[in-house]
Amino acid sequence: MKEFLKNKKVTYNLMSFTGFKALVLFSYLLESPKSYKEICQYFLEHPYLNEKISIDTLRVYITSLKRVGCEVKRERIDGVSKYSVVSNPFELTIAQEQVSSLVKVYKIISNDLTLEELLNIELFLKRLSSKIKNPEIFEAFSRVSLLKGVDIELLQELITLSAKKKQIIFQYKSPRSGIKNIEVLLSNVGINNSKIYLYGYSKEYNHDASYLVSRIVKILDVKNEPDILIQSTPIVVGFEYIGDLSDLDLKDNEKIVQTSDRGVIVEITSTNEFMINQRILGFTDKAKVLYPQSYQKQFINILKDMKAGIYIG
Amino acid sequence: MAKLSEKYNDSCIKIFEFLKLLYNDEATYEKVTQLLAVNYDEKMTTAVLLNKYLNTLKVFGIKIKKKNHKFHMLNSPFKIPFDKIDLQSIMLFKNSLNLLSDEKTKNKLEELLSSLFIRFDENAKTYVESLDNNSYIDLSFFYSKFETQIELCEKYIKEGQKVEITYQEKNKPEITLIGIPVELKYYRKKICYVIHSQKDGFNTEIPIDKIINMKQSCQTVSQGLSTTVVYRLKGSLAKSYKLKEYEYLERSEAGGSIIVVNKGEDCDILLSRLIRYNECCEIISPKSLKEKLRQTIDRMLSNYDN
Predict the structure, then answer these.
(1) What is the pLDDT of residues B200-218, one digit of tens each?
(2) How far apart are the first and last CA of chain A?
(3) What is the mean pLDDT of residues B240-249?
(4) Least confident range of A107-111, A204-208, A212-216, B123-127
(5) Most buried one in A121, A149, A236, B35, CB count within 10 A?
C-alpha cells in the first residue's frame, strides 16, 4: 500500500481499483455536468488513474451509481451530452425527532441568548434547510423561534443602522392607529421579554421610544444627517438592586455605579419615564428607587395606585 | 443476459454501500464483512478483503478509525460549506447538550450534530477547535459543585414524592417549602428546581445553589401539577399582546379586552410580569394570586418605609 501511494502505480491486490474509479467519477459528476470527453480527460490526468475510460464502462459505472441510490441525469448542454449526479444517498437528511430535540434545546436557551446569537441560529438553520433533502422539517423550529414574524433582512439592516446611530423613517403597523410613518433617531435593537424591539428617540413624542420589530413594515428613508433635536432632558434614575446579579441583565442604558451593603446601585438613563417604570417594576421587591426624589415619589404613587386597584379590576 | 445499460459493477456497489454504513454510523465489523463477502468467488480471507476496501477509501482521502468493533469515518469526502456563523450556532447547540436531562432527546440531538461534524471541511474543524475552549453555556461550575444535588433532584422528580426544601435567596429570609418536585430548569447562568406547592397551587423556581436543606417525605402525589391563572388584559396591551409559552387565549371581549389562561408559569416570574402591566391587567382567578400580588406590592412599598 505504501508503495502504491509512493509510486502512484496501481496494485490491484491491495485495493478495489473499480471501486476507486467509481468514487472518482461520482465526486467529479457532483461538481457540475460533465461530457464523456471531459470524463476521459479527467481520468487520463488523474494522478492515480492515468487512463481513459470506455463509454461502455462509463455506462456500467453510471448504472452502478443509480443502483446505490444516486440520481444521475443526462442532458444536452450547448449541443453536448453531459452527465451529472443530481442527488445522492450521502446528502444530509434530518429526522423529525432530531429537529424536535433541537427545538427543545432552543426553547431552553433562547431566552438567555443575545440578539446576535438568535440571529445566527436563524441564519444557520435557514442555510442548513437549503442544503438538505427535507427542508420542511424546520417548520417546527419556525413556530417557536423568537424571531418568528420578524423580517430577518430588515432586522439585520436595523442593527446596522442602529450601530451608526442613524435617523430613519419607517412604516409601522400600530395596533392602535394602524399603518403609520415613524421617524426615529436610532439607539439600538434589543430583546425584552422574548420580543425584539427597536429603541430610539421619537421625533413625534420627543422622548425615547421602543417599537416591536415584527410590526415594522419597511424602512422608508435613512437620513444622511440627523435633524432630530433631543429636546427632552434624559432622566437619570438610581435604584438599589438586591437580587442575584446573574438575574440583573443590564441594558444598554444602564450601568452599575456602586456597590451597596445589600447589592448594587444601578443608574438607568432615559427620556421615557414609562420605560423606566416598566424596568424597575419588573424587579418587584428586589429594587428600591433611590433618586431623584421626585421620581421616587412618583414611583411610590404608582405602587399605591396599583395596590388600590387590585380588587377593583 | 443483461443489457449493457443494466450492467453494474459489484465492487462499485460495495464501496458505496460501505460508505453508506459509515455515514449512518452503522459500520460494525460484522455488517461490513458480510457486505463485502457477498458474491465474492475468489478465495480471499476476510481481513484481506476488508483491507482492500479500506485502502480504497483511504486512497480516496477518507480517514477511517476502528473502535469497539466498529468503523468510524473521521472525515467526509462530501463536505458542506459552513461559515463562522453556522459553526458558532452548531457549537452553541453542542454546548447546550448538557441542558437536556432526557437521554433520548439528547441522543437525537447528538446524532444530528454528528452528521454535521462529519461534513466539516478542514477550515471548519480548525475554527471549531478554537471555539471549543469558549463554551457559550458554561454550566461546568454547576456540574462540578452541584453534581450530587442535581442527581438527588432528578431522583426526587422520578419518584414523585413530596419534598421539604429550605432555601435562602440573597437578602431574603430563609424559606421552607413543601411541595412536589416538577423539573429542573436550566438557564444560562443557573439551574432551578421547580417545586409545585399544593398549599397555594403555584410553581416556584428555586436556584439549586440557594438550597440549604432538602428531604423527601414518603407521600406520593398523583394530582395534576399545574395551577390555572386567568387574567383580563385591557387597552393597548390587549391589542399587541403576544401569548407566552404557558398561555392560551380564552376569548376576546367586546371592548377589545382579552381573557388569557396561564398554566404552570412560576409564580414570581408571572407576578413580576403582571405588575408591569399595571392597570392594563386584571387578575380574575385564583383569588390567592390577587393576594400574592397585594403582598408583593406591600413588600415593594415597605422598601420605602422610614
Answers:
(1) 778 889 998 899 999 887 7
(2) 85
(3) 84
(4) A107-111
(5) A121
Q: Is B188's CB within 8 Å of A109's CB?
A: yes
Question: In this structure, which amino acid lies at residue B298?
Answer: D
Domains of chain A: 2-87 (1.10.10.10), 96-144 (no CATH), 167-223 (2.40.50), 235-309 (no CATH)
Quickly count helices (H) and strands (E) in chain B.
11, 11
Q: Give the DSSP H/E element, type plus range, for residue B37.
A: helix B29-37
Is residue B87 within 8 A of residue B128, CB to CB? The reply is: yes
Chain B touched by A58 (CB under 8 Å): no
Mind listing the pLDDT tens digit for each residue in B59-93? 888 889 998 899 998 888 878 889 999 999 999 89
**Among chain B residues, CA nearest to A28:** B78
pLDDT of residue B139 exceeding 70: no
Nearest CA in chain A to B302: A285
CB contact under 8 A, A22 and B300: no
Which chain B residues are within 8 Å of A89, Cβ to Cβ?
16, 20, 23
CB-based burial of residue B271 (10 Å sphere; 0-12 exposed, 13-18 middle, 19+ buried)? buried
A194/A107 Cα distance (integer angstroms):
11
Rounded to an integer, what distance in angstroms lies between the CA atom of residue A241 and that of residue A258?
Answer: 11
Phi, psi of B221 (to 5 degrees): -120, 135
pLDDT of residue B133: 55
C-alpha cell read off for B65: 478509525
Asked whether the predicted pLDDT for residue B249 surpasses 90, the reply is: yes
